[in-house]
Amino acid sequence: MLTVALVPTIGFGGDGDSVTTRTTSSSMESVFIEVHNSDNVRRTFRVFAIGAQTDTPAADVRLLPGESHDVAGGESQRVLAVFQNLRPGETREARVCYAPVNLPADKTCEAIAIERL
């Protein structure tokens, strides 16, 4: 959708303990996620958004181009996480995670908080 391409984006590469925060006046905001394969062989990763404190899927977070990504060994791939349907005054928190499909417990997550003015 063209609208998504026009939404300002931020990228992050935090240590997993920090929260990436963003304030917006729009009903949606997006964040680039770097899916990094530190192994030396190609792997398929699942990218998913879950609650800030739970493993329940996060509402209204869309991943583009999708949830499944093949990443060559030592390479990275960008995924766009779009937080949608933000209401004025709302702060939405979620974790965007990725893990090899054959090792789902080996996930890497980044915490994100988006506040709509």
Form type:
elongated
Helical stretch count? 1
* Uncertain segments: 1-15
Helix/strand order = HEEEEEEEEE
The tally of beta strands, per DSSP, is: 9
Main beta-sheet strand count, sense and barrel state: 5 strands, mixed
Q: Can you give the mean pLDDT?
A: 88
End-to-end CA span: 24 Å
**What is the CA-atom radius of gyration, in angstroms?**
14 Å
Helical proportion? Answer: under 10%
Strand content: over 45%
Instruction: Determine the structural class based on helices, strands and strand pairing.
Output: mainly beta
Order of adjacent strands in the largest pleated sheet: 2-9-8-4-6
What are the defining features of this structure?
mainly beta; four-stranded mixed sheet; 1 helix; elongated
Description:
The chain is mainly β and 117 residues long. The protein contains one helix and nine strands; from the N terminus they run αβββββββββ. It has one helix spanning 2-6, and strands at residues 9-11, 19-24, 29-36, 43-51, 61-64, 68-71, 76-83, 91-100, 108-116. It has a five-stranded mixed β-sheet with strand order 2-9-8-4-6, with no helix packed on it. Strands 1-3-7-5 form a four-stranded mixed β-sheet, with no helix packed on it. A hairpin with a 7-residue loop joins β8 (91-100) and β9 (108-116). The longest helix is centred in the N-terminal third of the chain and has 5 residues, at 2-6. It starts with a helix and ends with a strand. Residues 1-15 have low confidence and may be disordered.
